[in-house]
Design brief:
It comes from Lactococcus nasutitermitis. The protein has 150 residues and is α+β, with helices and mostly antiparallel strands. It is built from 3 helices and 6 strands; from the N terminus they run αβββααβββ. The protein has helices spanning 11-25, 66-81, 91-100, and strands at 34-36, 45-48, 53-56, 114-118, 124-127, 145-149.
Length: 150
């Protein structure tokens, strides 16, 4: 697990950490660059087949599952290097990802301020703004909505 916050200091530290994880989990070298990308919003990382570099979301670095995000991108990287199926739908990708324990999807960084729930079926509705619970109902069962967290 990534408890070393020095990884977040620079691209060089990130690259060295990705190289270390690659050797430990795959037994294969990572020979390219890993870069922080502040423009990423909902994705944990990206693999670029054109030049084989990896981008990572710095907001995800604080999460306990950040190593698993790195492993996910390394699965893309190593399969591409071996000319095997490196895309999400490919069998090789799914098998290697399960083998190394990488995340299938990036964790949600949602910052919803309000949580509404249906009183009948329990459907959850995260929202940024308040809604009129007298006017709006559950989309699933038409039950009454109730504000759970503020």
């Amino acid at each position: 697990m990534n408890n070393d916050h020095s990884v977040k200091n620079s691209d060089d530290n990130l690259t060295a950490y990705v190289q270390q994880l690659s050797l430990e989990n795959f037994g294969w070298e990572f020979k390219h660059k890993a870069i922080w990308n502040n423009h990423l919003r909902s994705t944990g990382g990206r693999f670029f087949p054109k030049d084989n570099h990896l981008d990572f979301n710095p907001k995800m670095a604080e999460l306990p599952d950040f190593d698993k995000i790195i492993l996910h991108e390394l699965v893309h990287y190593h399969l591409y290097q071996q000319k095997r199926g490196y895309k999400h739908a490919d069998k090789d990708f799914k098998q290697l990802l399960a083998q190394v324990g990488g995340l299938r999807y990036a964790p949600n960084l949602s910052t919803s301020k309000l949580i509404y729930s249906c009183q009948q079926c329990g459907q959850i509705y995260p929202r940024q703004r308040k809604i009129n619970t007298q006017k709006y109902r559950c989309g699933r069962c038409h039950g009454k909505l109730q504000l759970k967290y503020f």
